[in-house]
Amino acid sequence: MACPLGPCGERRLSSVSPSNARRNSGNSFALCSPLTECGALRGSSFSLRGITAWAFDATIQSMAPRKSSTGKQSLAKRSAKKRSRSQDAPHAPELVIITGMSGSGKASVLKAFEDLGYYCVDNLPVELIPRFAEMALQSAEIRRTALVVDVREGSKLEQLPGILKAVRRLIPTKVAFLEASDAVLLRRFSETRRPHPLGTNEPVNASIKTERHHLARIRALADLVIDTSKFNVHELRAHVSALFREKSNEKGILVSCVSFGYRHGVPEEADLVFDVRFLPNPHFVPEFRPLTGRDPRVAKYIRSFPQTKEFIRRISDLLIYLLPHYVHEGKSYLTISFGCTGGQHRSVMIAEEVGKRLHKAGYRMKVTHRDMPK
Predict the structure, then answer these.
(1) How does pLDDT run across 318-336, given as a tens digit for each residue?
(2) For the domain bounded by 90-244, which CATH number is listed?
(3) What residues contact 364, with CB distance under 8 A and at least 6 apart?
(4) Strand order in the sheet with 144-148
(5) Tens of pLDDT, residues 195-234
(6) What is the DSSP string of 236-261?
(7) By C-alpha distance, which of 228, 346, 371, 336 is closest to 293?
(8) 207 vs 125, 159, 353, CA distance in Å?
(9) % helix / strand / coil in the chain, to the nearest 5?
(10) What is the DSSP letter of 363?
(11) Which residues of the chain does CATH 3.40.50.300 include?
């Protein structure tokens, strides 16, 4: 059949967010060149061999060369610009192919990659992998990608070693092979009561042995082999996240400090709640009543009490101790709420101060004041 995108992608369709693609049965399509005449890489969601496939918009833009400056820049300015460019540079292109035994935890690993910011696809037909790699390589937005390929592919899985060799010439590619002992896989299939992908014509233990034999050649090509026998779901995701998380000064969790007033109710999204109504209330100081905790005069007043300083120090130390453990458990965001009576003075000042300390400790911070007057 003709390419669903039209000749050279001239019929532009809408793009969709990353999602799992599931394959049934059906016809195959011949794909056009990824580049259209106007130089745009176009795509959409379409049904391909019974799977929901997709593509994404990535307009390839040409930029005019910069005019050389006639003036001389100082060394400090050049260094600052160089640092700025390095900080703003996009992720290096990367493709991770997740494969391995059925029941070894590939779905959980794919979710871990999704949490790390990878564009993730489940069960992509092997013949589409080179096309997918080209699109990812040329996209300005989607740089790091991960996809699952396994025995559900059937006989076409035998093409993977050759396709992998070609794809590695296009984009940096890693293969992660997941496995577990026969006893563990058998127990997992028994617990989930799901059939083995190779069918129900033979016992599960026989299907496991057959699958292991079919995957032996692919396992030999893997860059990383992970035995998941002794991992639970949370431990597996944490392990994979630690292996593939980018090296950065910022910790891999987003922390939100939220101030609120108890008279308006506790925030539903709060993970941790601290009551700061034990602090003296600026509301009863007439000159502070119309102001908020972000005003320097109000903040100075609240900070003047010794219990305020000690509370900020103790809470900050507690959170800096706790956050690495939340990260280890796979938590990608945490909401910390501070409440006072009206959410205008004390809770606002405390949320701001604790937020500054956590940011200084290297965490990505977001400070919001739910009930503070605008």
Answers:
(1) 999 999 988 877 677 899 9
(2) 3.40.50.300
(3) 250, 251, 253, 254, 255
(4) 119-122, 144-148, 94-100, 173-179, 224-227
(5) 888 876 788 889 999 999 989 999 999 999 999 988 888 8
(6) HHHHHHHHHSPP-SS-S-EEEEEEEE
(7) 346
(8) 22, 21, 59
(9) 40, 15, 45
(10) -
(11) 90-244
